Amino acid sequence: MATDGHGEVVIAVRGLTVGFGDHIVLDAVDLDVYRGEVLGFVGGSGAGKSVLLRTIIGLLPRRAGTVRVFGVDPVAADQATRRAVERRWGVLFQQGALFSSLTVRENLQFPVRENLRLSPRLMDELAVAKLQMVGLDASVLDKFPSELSGGMTKRVALARALALDPEIVFLDEPTSGLDPIGAADFDALIATLQRTLGLTVFMVTHDLDSLYTVCDRIAVLADRKVIATGTMASMLASDHPWLRAYFHGKRSRAAASAPAPPTVVQE
After folding, report:
1. Residue 145 gets which letter from DSSP?
2. E strand or H helix at 84
3. Are 108 and 118 within 8 A, CB to CB?
4. What is the pTM of this model?
5. CA nearest neighbour of 228 among 252, 244, 209
6. Contact predicate 68/42, CB 8 Å
7. Helix/strand/coil for 202
8. CA max distance for the chain
9. Nearest alpha carbon to residue 147 among 195, 83, 102, 198
10. How many CA atoms lie within 13 A of 111 on its CB side?
11. d(CA 50, CA 45)
12. What are the E-state strand segments in 21-173?
């Protein structure tokens, strides 16, 4: 598997072009994700962040370029190899994407039934264990998604993403729709799981607090390309107009921590 000065590359995107009709969303995108890091992927609304995530995991077709996960291009691989690679990642979609007609128990057990042969007792024990990992307990097992709060829905969806003990977790806007306390708690949960399980995390986000508190590196999508990758410090030091507007704008931490302008008292 490829390595460079940052370590082992577990996701390698090269020259990726994706479009819909005449509209090109991603144009010759290059990106590396390293084992064990939390990569925050940011960009403007509609820039194509979720499109890249969905293309990496094979839900959207590409017009050009390659995507290799653990050294394998899932699209070009045979079915057995593709399934083996897919079992090594989990996905948390933006709204959770729980099956509304299934209980929490059934949602959590769905990927397990698709990939493993376990007894009903072991399936139930696995479901409880995954719920405990995300801060929930067995009391929610027989609830339907409509009975869950937004924060609980996110946690159940994350538990399902962890059902097969993946090495990579893809998170699409994991804190969207959560209040500030809930978002901070979810950030802390992601950090704890990444540290204790040794996960690689690919996180699409708009949340500046998540970028500051959870992410090891940040990749920025603008003008259909990845225009910058690096630490938060390198983002703050950049002179690129989009980066300055995003990381030094009125809602940024840099702006919030700046001294207030002096009050002008008119005589």
Report:
1. G
2. helix 79-86
3. no
4. 0.88
5. 244
6. no
7. strand
8. 81
9. 102
10. 23
11. 10
12. 23-34, 38-43, 64-69, 89-92, 168-172
Give the number of C-alpha atoms closer than 13 A to the C-alpha of residue 219, restricted to the C-beta side: 24
Which of 133-142, 157-166, 242-251, 256-265 has the lowest average pLDDT? Answer: 256-265
Which residues does residue 14 pair with via DSSP β-bridges, in sequence order? 66
| C-alpha–C-alpha distance, residues 252 and 209, integer Å | 9
At 194 the pLDDT is 94
- Residue 258's pLDDT is what? 44
Give Cβ neighbours of residue 171 (< 8 Å, ≥ 6 apart): 92, 158, 190, 201, 202, 203, 204, 205
Distance CA 193, CA 205 (A): 18
Cβ contact 94:58 at 8 Å: no
User: What is the layout of strands, in order, in the sheet containing 225-230?
Assistant: 89-92, 168-172, 200-204, 38-43, 217-222, 225-230
Q: Tokens 């690689």 correspond to what residue?
A: 200
DSSP per residue over 206-230, as a string?
--HHHHHHT-SEEEEEETTEEEEEE
Q: Which residue is associated with the tokens 């306390």?
A: 181
203: β partners: 40, 171
The answer to whether 156 touches 103, Cβ cutoff 8 Å, is no
What does the angle CA 179 – CA 185 – CA 189 come to, to the nearest 5 degrees? 140
